[in-house]
Specification:
Blueprint: H1 24-28, E1 44-50, E2 56-62, H2 64-67, E3 72-77, E4 102-103, E5 109-115, H3 118-127, E6 129-134, H4 141-145, E7 160-168, H5 171-177, E8 180-187, E9 200-205, E10 211-215, H6 220-231, E11 238-242, H7 258-270, E12 274-277, H8 280-285, E13 293-301, E14 307-319, H9 325-334, E15 345-353, H10 367-385, H11 389-395, H12 415-426, H13 428-431, E16 439-449, E17 460-466, E18 472-476, H14 485-497, E19 504-507, H15 525-552, E20 559-562, E21 565-568, E22 575-577, H16 578-589, E23 594-599, E24 619-630, E25 637-646, H17 654-674, E26 679-680, E27 683-684, E28 706-710, H18 728-731, H19 733-745, H20 756-770
Helix pairs in contact: 10-19, 14-15, 15-16, 17-19
Length: 771
């Protein structure tokens, strides 16, 4: 971590110092209980029957032979559930717990079995007879948009799942005055989340009517509402309890899945707990993946390379169902210009239904794809005009205090400093265009929001309860998916109360006992939940100060909290241990100290029809430089070094920030070079980790050559000056990789992944052109 001149003069007791994760020992020693670790007396095991067809009508399902198999306890089909559609967004609810009359992709869930063990459940699936009538299918966006194409959903003519349009400024007039205009098309691929833990859950339908789900969910309260909707019960009749989560990055861990509904309904039928665990083949085959996109981008600039107009047409292959796709397409347009100034901008994005597994959110939600296209093209324009690629980015940089054309209000935004940092630390000026043949260095830039005012529920809340021994129980509705939420929330509370993080226990989310919260997504937790925890701790601190004032005869405003003590700042001999004050207040005054806090960002009007509105309280710019070496015989890319910098405000836990940045960078390296879910007529051809290539430690530079800098600022909208750190770093990487490959080979690659085959083909084509 590196400091900059922006660092505020704030004397932290706990924050700002590297802290290992509070749950690290539990995870390292195998004591952390994940959903698959749960076992209950009499528990049954569930399996899902999946469609072998990409598009078919279900004419008949016969479960009699499967039910007769010894060890099978119950089977459910789509007819056992209420005739209700569910989903993330009210306007695009199109999914059922199990397919009812039609399947729309290979792998869609048709029936579920509960049996005494997994093998018996698997055998039962083979005995379920389903009569299908196969229907014409469409797999790519052009076929799905063609006149006369099969329609996947009656309410979506032309197979348009969602459409987002916006325009700001006089775009055509600006293009007419542009000195230089360039058009390019970029294509991105479908990729999976790659979390270590597969989807898993245990459902118990209690005799008194309560349906309880234990699961590895990032947004338990979202799942809670969806389960109530899909089961046809009141939300108060559903309970969702979070287990440890082995990675998430959105996807199926952010919403209810068929296995969740089936676990509960099968439990109701059998009176026993039912567990489902997906195989890794299922994880890679079913829905929830990053949208593959075709991005047509037209950009006009003046003589100095400053952007005067931009027009983007985006088509996304959304698969068979909507998931959170409406938001995906909107975000791509909303973040199109970040981190650059663009006064005149037009965006036209469509998400198209196809007979593939459906797409949704994945780390850097659509921003990764849009930054790849926009930043790559900006560098091409620099080449066209003979402008230095660093200089053209600086000339177009958004600055603190800007309001973008679409209404994003920019607070702290040390974008230029990010660029300078990676340029200087990488030795860019001594390397660009000067390295040996097939070795190159490139740069990319991007940015991300710190939580979004979306989905109708923005507020976060927290509760802090002091125990008589001076320890604290902290509860929020936000989940720790491995990024260190538990630790940083404990650090915030400890900072306010003058105690240590070891004094704080963090309760996992339980919809019956913890505060309601939208969950962990969109880099919202540090800012939104962090504020709520800070306010809850301040509330508790004020209560303790009032009790101490009565006991010590001191004005409560004169107390400071430090070293687990309450101290009179005017006379430090007047002090008491925090635990003694809490105990005295409880025993003598009957006051239990419970602090509560909540945070909702300032109300903003966000117009989804026009695309105008300030999506987030804060934004984080980032820059990345990558150095590569390419084998001209194979086309393989060796990543030699990575230098990244971002403005994540004031890092509350620098160690966690570094981990998040490295993780985001590695995921985007995977998208740039390796990952691709290969589908032929809707069938996934590489449904295993052996065949689905993700970056390994051996594919990456040594940590000594993996440098990250935090440009430290103090974001007034964030708790203790903090902003997000988990997603922005990944938005710059893909463009940086494309830039580096260009420097090494002269090839401008506009399709992902930038595979060895494409590089080798390009090199051979370039050689042939010289002859």
């Amino acid at each position: 971590m590196s400091d900059a001149s922006h660092k505020p003069n704030y004397d932290f007791q706990v924050l700002g110092k590297p802290q290992p994760k509070k749950d690290a020992l539990q995870k390292a020693t195998g004591r952390a209980e994940y959903a698959d670790d749960l076992n209950f007396p009499g528990m049954l095991h569930g399996k899902l029957l999946r469609s072998p067809f990409a598009h078919a009508r279900i004419k008949r399902i016969d479960i009699s032979k499967a039910l007769a198999l010894p060890g099978v306890r119950a089977i459910v089909t789509g007819k056992d559930f209420p005739d209700v559609l569910y989903g993330n967004l009210p306007k695009t609810r199109d999914y059922r717990a199990l397919a009812l009359d039609r399947v729309r992709y290979i792998g869609e869930e048709v029936a579920a079995v509960a049996a005494i063990d997994e093998d018996t459940a698997e055998d039962a699936l083979d005995l379920i007879e389903v009569e299908y009538e196969e229907l014409p299918a469409v797999f790519d966006i052009d076929a799905a948009r063609a006149p006369g194409a099969p329609q996947l959903h009656d309410k979506a003519p032309g197979n348009v799942s969602t459409h987002s349009k916006s325009q700001f400024g006089d775009v055509e007039a600006a293009f007419a005055t542009a000195h230089h205009v360039r058009e390019d098309v970029f294509e991105t691929q479908p990729i999976k989340h790659g979390m270590l833990e597969p989807h898993a859950c245990v459902g118990i339908w209690e005799p008194y009517g309560k349906a309880t789900l234990w699961s590895c969910k990032m947004s338990p309260y979202v799942v809670w509402r969806q389960l109530a909707m899909g089961l046809g019960v009141r939300p108060s009749d559903v309970r969702v309890i979070q287990t440890f989560i082995g990675g998430g990055f959105s996807g199926g861990k952010q919403e209810a899945m068929p296995m969740d509904f089936c676990a509960l309904l099968l439990s109701k039928k059998t009176g026993r707990p039912v567990k489902f665990v997906h195989t890794m083949d299922e994880v890679l085959t079913i829905g929830h993946m990053r949208h593959p996109m075709r991005i047509w981008l037209r950009t006009g600039v003046d003589k100095e390379g400053r952007i005067v107009a931009q027009h983007c047409k985006l088509l996304a292959n959304g698969g068979a169902y909507s998931s959170i796709g409406g938001l995906s397409i909107y975000l791509a347009g909303a973040m199109l210009n970040l981190p650059y100034r663009v006064a005149n901008i037009r965006y036209d994005g469509e998400r198209i239904y196809t007979n593939n597994g459906f797409c949704g959110a994945l780390r850097g939600h659509t921003v990764v794809q849009i930054c790849f296209a926009r930043d790559s093209q900006l560098e091409m324009i620099a080449d066209d005009l003979g402008i230095d690629p660093i200089e053209i980015r600086k000339r177009n940089a958004i600055e603190e205090g800007d309001v973008t054309a679409n209404g994003l209000r920019i607070g702290t935004f040390a974008f230029r400093e990010c660029i300078e940092r990676v340029v200087n630390e990488s030795g860019w000026r001594d390397k660009r265009g000067k390295l040996p043949k097939y070795r190159g260095i490139g740069i990319g830039c991007g940015g991300h929001l710190s939580g979004a005012r979306l989905m109708g529920h923005s507020a976060s809340a927290a509760e802090i309860r002091l125990q008589e021994d001076g320890t604290v129980n902290l509860t929020t509705g936000s989940t720790d998916v491995g990024q260190g939420v538990e630790t940083v929330m404990a650090m915030i509370a400890a900072e306010v109360l003058g105690i240590e993080t070891d004094d704080i226990s963090y309760t996992m989310v339980d919809s019956e006992t913890t505060p309601v919260d939208p969950g962990t997504f969109s880099s919202r937790v540090t800012l939104f939940t962090g504020h709520a925890v800070k306010r809850a701790a301040e509330d508790a601190r004020d209560q303790i100060a009032a009790i101490a004032g009565e006991k010590l005869g001191v004005d409560p405003k004169d107390f400071i909290f430090k070293g687990r003590e309450v101290i009179n700042r005017k006379n430090d001999k007047q002090r008491a241990k925090l635990k003694d004050i809490v105990r005295w207040g409880s025993f003598q005054l009957g006051r239990m100290v419970t602090g509560r806090g909540a945070y909702t960002p300032a109300e903003e009007k966000i117009d989804f029809e026009t695309g105008h509105g300030n999506l987030s309280p804060a934004y984080n710019p980032t820059a990345c430089v990558i150095e590569v070496e390419i084998d001209p015989e194979t086309g393989f890319v060796d990543v030699v070094g990575v230098w990244g910098a971002d403005d994540s405000g004031t890092p509350l836990n620098p160690l966690a920030v570094k981990g998040q940045v490295i993780g985001a960078t590695v995921m985007s390296i995977g998208q740039a070079l390796y990952e691709n879910l290969i589908r032929v007529d809707g069938k996934v051809m590489n449904p295993s980790l052996r065949d689905y290539k993700m970056p390994l430690a051996t594919d990456l530079p040594k940590l000594a050559n993996f440098r990250h800098s935090s440009i430290i600022t103090w974001e007034p909208e964030g708790p203790f000056g903090a902003k997000e750190a988990g997603q922005s770093a990944g938005t710059a990487v893909v463009a940086a990789m494309a830039s580096a490959i260009y420097d090494a080979t002269g090839l401008r690659l506009t399709r992902l992944p930038m595979s060895p085959e494409d590089i080798l083909f390009g090199l051979k084509a370039a050689e042939a052109a010289k002859k």
